[in-house]
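Reviewers asked in the last cycle whether our approach scales beyond single polypeptides. To address this, we selected a multi-component target totalling 230 residues and predicted its structure end to end. The input consisted of the following lines:
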Amino acid sequence: DAKTTQPPSMDCAEGRAANLPCNHSTISGNEYVYWYRQIHSQGPQYIIHGLKNNETNEMASLIITEDRKSSTLILPHATLRDTAVYYCIVSFSSGGTSYGKLTFGQGTILTVHP
Amino acid sequence: GAVVSQHPSWVICKSGTSVKIECRSLDFQATTMFWYRQFPKQSLMLMATSNEGSKATYEQGVEKDKFLINHASLTLSTLTVTSAHPEDSSFYICSARAYRGTGELFFGEGSRLTVL
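The resulting structure, written as structure tokens, was:
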């Protein structure tokens, strides 16, 4: 799996948008970008994933650059409950033995403050 | 969304005993499940890949005789920590890949093991 680089920590004010960057300069053409988050002492929670196009769901938006070497996860209106460690991971999607074999980096500790 | 459940959520055992942790996919069939371990203030580390009906594949450095994995059905995988020692104390997390997936993996709530 390609490696990712994320800032170790970020702060965000409640109600504001949280923009979490991720660099994945060695991503291959058929690898997806996944975002998960982990709240203390819980299992990771899936947020969103994408290949080339920007994606949006009820939790967040994912913006992937045209060259696919970086992406940004956007939480449009951060709440205190969004305080967590956010992991950006690149991996193959369906098909192939590597599918699902996620390699977690250190992630970004996002702290949302009042 | 799909649910993956782990049991027990926490367990305390004496050194030298064995502990079994279950991982169940509650509303989907999972041909493949993954077991991770997480030490305090560290990231998740993949231990092994559990395939239904076949032997698990272990990551480098993970002792297969110490961490026994069984994936006997499409909804259940078990991890048994044999002859546990204090250094095995950790947060163990499983994830499941759906038989007909849409791309995401689903994680269990985790099981915290403390070996005295």
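The longest strand of chain A covers residues 84-92. We regard this as preliminary and will revisit it once experimental data from Aim 1 are available.
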